[in-house]
Amino acid sequence: MIQQRATDMDWMLKDLAESVPQTRHVVVLSADGLRMAQHGADTDTADRLAAACAGLQSLAGAVAQELPHSDGKMRLVVIEMDGGFFYLMAAGAGAFLAVLADEGVDAGLMGQRMRDLVARIGEHLSSPPRHDVGQPA
């Protein structure tokens, strides 16, 4: 199921990467850090990014709970580093869209294209909760 979903998303992730110059990697991941789809990254790199994102979205959610009137959900995290930017956006129930881009990326364009992609295919990016093996689904 996840493999089929990843194959179906390949062209959409490629479209995001090609529509924003300086995009390096695009990864879709579940809330628990499992890679669901990728573009521009080898499998090992995409898996490492997905695992790191699970911790980052959890941290962002914990910080969001400190704001009055917040539902505690993370919407967007942007990290600026030497050499580039990292974006992590909520993309459906239990799913996230992560992008690593080079230093010269147009941050506004990246945010807009990520929001457009999530709005267009958000339901396809959702990751249903996993059940323990042996437990009824």
Automatic annotation (TrEMBL):
Question: Per its record, how is this protein called by name?
Answer: Roadblock/LC7 domain-containing protein
Q: InterPro entries under this entry?
A: Mycobact_SerProt_Inhib_Rv3364c, Roadblock/LAMTOR2_dom
Enumerate the Pfam families for this protein: Robl_LC7
Transmembrane feature ranges: 84-105
SMART domains given in the database record: Robl_LC7 (SM00960)
**SUPFAM superfamilies assigned to the protein according to its UniProt record, in alphabetical order:** Roadblock/LC7 domain (SSF103196)
Q: Which UniProt keywords apply?
A: Membrane, Transmembrane, Transmembrane helix
Taxonomy of origin reads: Bacteria, Bacillati, Actinomycetota, Actinomycetes, Kitasatosporales
Roadblock/LAMTOR2 domain segment(s): 10-101
Supply the PANTHER family for this chain.
SERINE PROTEASE INHIBITOR RV3364C
